[in-house]
Q: What sequence folds into this?
């Protein structure tokens, strides 16, 4: 059934979805939620055509491994129908908002993975879309499933996270509430109860949360972890986790060519400038996936893309052609470490043109030694980054920013370092910071 024909109304929300176009200063925004960040090359072409035909030609990779089309005009229904025809929609309209399940971009192919998370992810997504009760979850309520991959975004907070680990020869899933996989786990379940745990957590949340309590952190402000675990233990068998904590991953593994499972094959990662692609670039990447890979692309929480299953002997050629398309495959380039929100060009709340300022900053940076990840935010909402970057520039006026450095002892963006800086002054400070052995 076409999801547009369902009788279930879409829940009011400020978050865009595939079926709900949200207006911004530069036009409508359509968010396409990708299962595990993956799509076929033919679907990538469909996104490119929709952006070109019905919008302003701006496609964004998001920090939850999804895609957005910006600048949508009056032909919203035609755009939605074209994406649904490509198989990019939910199984029903009311289920679109709850497809918030993040995996490693290298799920199933990472050489260090403990489990292939994709079958469990499919089971979870089918359940939350197919059961009407779960449609009451907020469009921001999110779950992370980590299979122990080397390539994993572990700094984005989730309402529920699960992480594979091994103890006494048995593989289990540690889990936690309102945090990240690098936090101390609340408990663990056997692999076969992973689906049951997710469903139990979602049901318990909906049982206990008042309408205004949309996130797990809101519930934890009134209910202790211990009380929630006691109630979960009535539904699934939970064990304590001792002497284990998820080690940090490596973000550099999403850039360039890296060996994967399989004989002589690699995935190739490329970063669009500040997460933005135009239709020609996305079409070109899709063509390379068809020509050299398995006809699929994977988007990442670093706002980049991977082409999996590339024969090793073709990796250099794929990198060369991706760079010809305007993508970066070299982690040493400053632009691969910069993220920026839409800014004042597309958002009424933005105090500066963050995208243009980020491009200027990248051109000015020389960076010696370790390069910092830098986040430019047009306002305090921090839409572009779900985690705290090593350095954050918070706009205070056009072309002027307050500079923060991440500090575990301080919430939010971290420690305020300097106020009202120009981009040139920021570049000088960051270059000096990169030379320092006290680099954050």
A:
């Amino acid at each position: 059934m076409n999801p547009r024909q369902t009788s279930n109304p879409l829940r009011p929300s400020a978050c865009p979805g595939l079926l709900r176009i949200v207006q911004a200063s530069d036009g409508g925004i359509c968010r396409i939620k990708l299962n595990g960040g993956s799509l076929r090359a033919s679907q990538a072409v469909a996104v490119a055509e929709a952006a070109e035909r019905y919008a302003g030609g701006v496609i964004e990779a998001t920090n939850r491994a999804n895609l957005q089309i910006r600048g949508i005009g009056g032909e919203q229904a035609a755009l939605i129908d074209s994406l649904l025809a490509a198989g990019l929609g939910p199984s029903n309209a009311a289920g679109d908002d709850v497809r918030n399940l993040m995996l490693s971009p290298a799920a199933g192919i990472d050489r260090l993975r403990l489990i292939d998370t994709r079958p469990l992810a499919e089971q979870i997504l089918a359940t939350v879309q197919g059961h009407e009760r779960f449609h009451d979850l907020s469009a921001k309520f999110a779950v992370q499933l980590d299979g122990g991959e080397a390539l994993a975004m572990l700094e984005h907070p989730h309402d529920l996270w699960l992480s594979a680990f091994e103890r006494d020869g048995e593989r289990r899933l540690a889990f936690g509430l309102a945090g990240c996989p690098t936090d101390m786990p609340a408990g663990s379940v056997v692999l076969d109860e992973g689906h049951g745990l997710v469903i139990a957590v979602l049901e318990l949340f909906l049982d206990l949360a008042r309408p205004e309590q949309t996130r797990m952190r809101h519930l934890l402000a009134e209910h202790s972890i211990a009380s929630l675990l006691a109630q979960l233990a009535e539904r699934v068998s939970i064990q304590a986790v001792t002497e284990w904590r998820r080690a940090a991953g490596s973000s550099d593994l999403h850039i360039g060519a890296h060996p994967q499972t399989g004989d002589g094959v690699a995935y190739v990662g490329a970063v669009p400038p500040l997460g933005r692609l135009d239709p020609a670039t996305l079409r070109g990447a899709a063509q390379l996936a068809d020509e050299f890979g398995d006809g699929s692309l994977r988007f990442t929480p670093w706002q980049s893309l991977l082409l999996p299953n590339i024969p090793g002997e073709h990796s250099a050629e794929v990198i060369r052609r991706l760079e010809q398309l305007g993508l970066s495959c070299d982690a040493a380039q400053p632009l691969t470490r910069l993220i920026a929100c839409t800014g004042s060009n597309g958002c009424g709340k933005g105090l500066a043109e963050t995208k243009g300022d980020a491009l200027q900053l990248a051109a000015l940076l020389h960076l010696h030694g370790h390069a910092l990840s830098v986040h430019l935010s047009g306002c305090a909402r921090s839409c572009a980054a779900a985690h705290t970057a090593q350095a954050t520039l918070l706009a205070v006026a056009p072309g002027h920013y307050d500079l923060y450095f991440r500090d575990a002892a301080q919430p939010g963006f971290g420690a305020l370092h300097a106020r009202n800086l120009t981009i040139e002054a920021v570049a000088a400070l960051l270059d000096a910071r990169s030379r320092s052995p006290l680099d954050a």
Observations:
- The CA atoms of residues 67 and 174 lie 29 Å apart.
- The chain has a mean pLDDT of 93.
- Residues 194-208 form the longest helix (15 residues).
- Residues 114-147+155-248 form a domain with the Sulfite Reductase Hemoprotein; domain 1 fold (CATH 3.30.413.10).
